[in-house]
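Problem 3 from the worked examples.
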Amino acid sequence: MPSIMANWMLDAIERWAEGYWLVRETGIVDVEGRLDGLLVPTSGEAHCMKHQGGWFWDRIRLVGVECKCSRPDFLRGLREGQFQRYAASLSGLYIATSVGVCSPSEIPPGTGHLEYRNTTGGPRCVCRRHPVYQDRCWTADVPWRLLFDLRQKQIHDLRAEHARYDKALEAITNAAKGMVFRPLGKIINHVNEQMRKPPAEPADLQMKETQP
């Protein structure tokens, strides 16, 4: 399970990754481990597909993202050969780090580098280097896993949208109670009270009854 910091990184990467769908913590591609994220191109704006012409691609490229929030975690990945192992199973790999976790020269050759920065305008992702892309032959189950994960994401997004709608509707209803329905109820009660009172006699009739 990615840490809170890693999730913040992935949020920033998702905003940066134009032309991609970011699948989080996925086992779609077997990398002898569990990727923090997988970038699936959805248009020609995806950097890994830009050089390919025409409307259709011969082969889709799946690019991994591995988040390293601390220097010890980054050094452990280097020492254990994690980055090379992941890159060998993907079309490319980005290592995402916080500022100061590593120097550009420490990133393995052929691997991309994304840097997470917490700026005054909010968290953002900066690409320091793109990976060297490779075409891979995916197993037959990869497209089905992608479709399944996409469907699960759609269900999750729809539920979240419905929850936001229900919350907004509840807020509108509560506001309407205070601003419209309660004052309207008071007006109706006042009108009802006035209607229950006996009608007042005309003033000229009252004057005649008081004359001798």
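Problem 4, a separate protein:
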Amino acid sequence: MTDPHVPATPAPSIGENIATLRKAAGLSQNALRLRAGISMSLLSKIEIGDRPCTPAVAASVARALGVTMAQLNGQVQTRNSGPNIDAVRSAVRRYDLPHDRPLPAPETLSERLATATTLRAATRYDALALELPALIDDLTAHAHAVHDPARWGMLADAYACAYTLAHRLGQPDLAEIVVGRQAWAAERAQNPVASAGAAWTRAGTFQSAGDYDGGMAVVEEAISRYGAVQADQPSAVVALGALHLRAITLASRAKDASATAEHTAYAHRLAEVLPIGDVLAHNLTFGAGNTHLHVLAAHVELDQPQKAASLADGYTPGAGLTPTRVGHFHLDTARAHLAVGDRDASLRSLRTAERTAPQMTRVHPMAREVARVLLALHRRSNPELVGLASRLGIAP
């Protein structure tokens, strides 16, 4: 039986795309590496698949080539990204049109939104794509008819789910549209937490595009605006803490160690406010565990893989961390182990990421990069690796 979560066709590696785009632009490797500010050795290894292309390097190369990150990465079209995504796109498009059908009961909307939130956190993108179109339609109808700020807040949360779906299934144009819709709904919700969540999502589009300075501007403005409301409710602490975690990722990818440390300190202090560990609220997860995971990933981005591997060693993600966050932890651990030369540990972490969050791992650019490099480093004789690579859409 065909697996709907596997990329429909093997996708070229980022390195192969870089080589193709570089040659199309008439650039030598030396000319491109000078424009991108990277070494000749690194560029050569990325192009032939002996070194993974980190998000920060990809952003520098994309700017040097004058292309988008989506063009550099290549679109990973999965078999479940067709009609269902089109239905999501249609629902998002109809945000301001009247609905003439009877409105569903409010309690059913709450239950359906909770289901969508759970599916997103569990990386069940196939089921989420089926759930979202009617949910967005019904929430939109309710929000327009009832004029209750709480309904607009629910719609903002549904749009947050739609952003994750579009982002993970290689639909950057839809993701950009959804970000605007989420901010529009959050404004009508008259809820600072909903607006902070919308800012977190918007910063994600800058992160995906490799515009780390732009993303930091969005996050810092949101922290300044909403930071004063965090003291008296856990959901506000989660939203503010999540903004600092987003800033950790953006700053580390921009190689700004000072800003990374500053936002890490703020995140640690906020995590102490939550006595119950990590909390999921409005599709944002925050607490001591998720802060640990972001600091680990930041060490990878700051070219400190040994520190990242040390943070991963013996660490078990605790309760409150959703499969999407635990999956990211194992992906970043795989990157760290690969960077320090422990290929066996890297493969083990990659396999654990797939078991934890299969649909996310099988479309995640860094999962494919790590697997490609492991294959290139003379591991094609490993049946386990070959099978994993096939599930990631990589031709051995």
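Solution to problem 4. Strands lie at 279-281, 284-286. The CA atoms of residues 21 and 135 lie 41 Å apart.
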